[in-house]
Design goal:
The chain folds into two domains: 85 residues, Leucine Dehydrogenase, chain A, domain 1 (Rossmann fold, 3-Layer(aba) Sandwich), CATH 3.40.50; 124 residues, Rossmann fold. It is built from ten helices and eleven strands. The strands form three sheets. A six-stranded parallel sheet has the order 1-11-8-7-5-6. A three-stranded parallel sheet has the order 3-2-4, with helices on both faces. Helix 1 packs parallel to helix 10, helix 2 packs across helix 10 and helix 6 crosses helix 10. The structure holds NADPH dihydro-nicotinamide-adenine-dinucleotide phosphate.
Length: 284
């Protein structure tokens, strides 16, 4: 039986650690504050925003909610971001994606001060990750590293294959595994003979956005398999990019969906809110 990597338990542990540190900062007179900006009322986004606010409450981070109407102009949104950038009592800024079509997402994300970019999407933070400088790291891949480390899985020297090269998951994931001294390969939709590549992996991280695409024949016996994907089927059941039932018998450890990578993303967001205080002290 493969080891089940328990994202629920590990994320709870991280939130407890963050909670303690946030309380200690509060005692020193610093109230960690996150501004959460949502434009429009996309139901999925509203659920994510609600969960982020709940997590803030739990760990003691003050959250400021800005719920702007769908027709908000790009200029109005940029104005609010500039205001948040300037406010010394705001440590982190999060703009919930996706934004309405009339707003240029890239322009908005680039407008967030890199010192307050708790999602880790700003080019300056991506660059910092690339050259090993302090900065915010995208929450989902940062969560995967915590899952591995806290489950006692060694990364250094291992063959790591990341399937997917998106800016928010695949690419930062590859950089983080490299930072941990893994030997990293990134596969994508143009990769020839994907199975041959994934079968080399000691650690296989899958972020393709295709339900149950990775079956046992993509996995080396004894590999560690991390499933970043989240999909909801017609029966309202969640599944990942990995076909859990077929892969679990061949691997040594695996993340379930739900209860694997999913809960880590918000825990790492809370951790980034906490880190914003020290990053602002170093670079601000
Ligand atoms: P994207 O759609 O942005 O990227 C998917 C990547 O997979 C692309 O790089 C694409 O390649 C590659 N890909 C697609 N099809 C294939 C294929 N047949 N073979 C090989 N590679 C392929 O997705 P994201 O990175 O944003 O998300 C990936 C998954 O993770 C989704 O299921 C998403 O819901 C989930 N997710 C979960 C989070 C969490 O908190 N747990 C957070 C973020 C995402 P190419 O670049 O060539 O097009």
């Amino acid at each position: 039986m493969a080891q089940l990597i328990d994202g629920k338990a590990i994320s709870a542990q991280i939130k407890e650690e963050v909670k303690e540190k946030v309380a200690a900062l509060k005692e020193q007179g610093c109230e960690v504050t996150l501004a959460v900006i949502q434009v429009g009322a996309d139901p999925a986004s509203s659920v994510y925003v609600r969960n982020k606010k709940k997590a803030c409450e739990y760990v003691g981070v003050r959250s400021l909610a800005y719920e702007l109407p769908e027709e908000t102009t790009e200029e109005k949104l940029l104005e609010l971001i500039r205001e948040m950038n300037d406010r010394t009592d705001v440590n982190g800024i999060l703009v919930q994606l996706p934004l309405p079509k009339h707003i240029d997402e890239e322009k908005v994300l680039d407008a967030i001060s890199p010192l307050k970019d708790v999602d880790g999407f700003h080019p300056q933070n991506v660059g910092a990750l690339c050259i090993g400088k302090p900065g915010f790291v995208s929450c989902t891949p940062a969560g995967v590293i915590q899952l591995l480390k806290r489950s006692g899985i060694e990364i250094a020297g291992k063959e790591c294959v990341v399937v997917g090269r998106s800016n928010i998951v695949g690419k930062p994931m590859a950089l983080l595994l490299l930072r941990e001294n893994g030997t990293v390969t990134v596969a994508h939709s143009r990769t020839k003979d994907l199975k041959e590549v994934t079968k080399r992996a000691d650690i296989l991280v899958v972020a393709v956005g295709r339900p149950k695409m990775i079956t046992a024949d993509y996995v080396k016996e004894g590999a560690v398999v991390i499933d970043v994907g989240i999909h909801r089927n017609e029966q309202n059941k969640l599944c990942g990019d990995v076909d859990f039932d077929s892969v679990e018998p061949v691997c040594s450890a695996i993340t379930p969906v739900p209860g694997g990578v999913g809960p880590m993303t918000i825990a790492m967001l809370m951790n980034n809110c906490l880190e914003s205080v020290s990053l602002q002290a170093i670079r601000g």
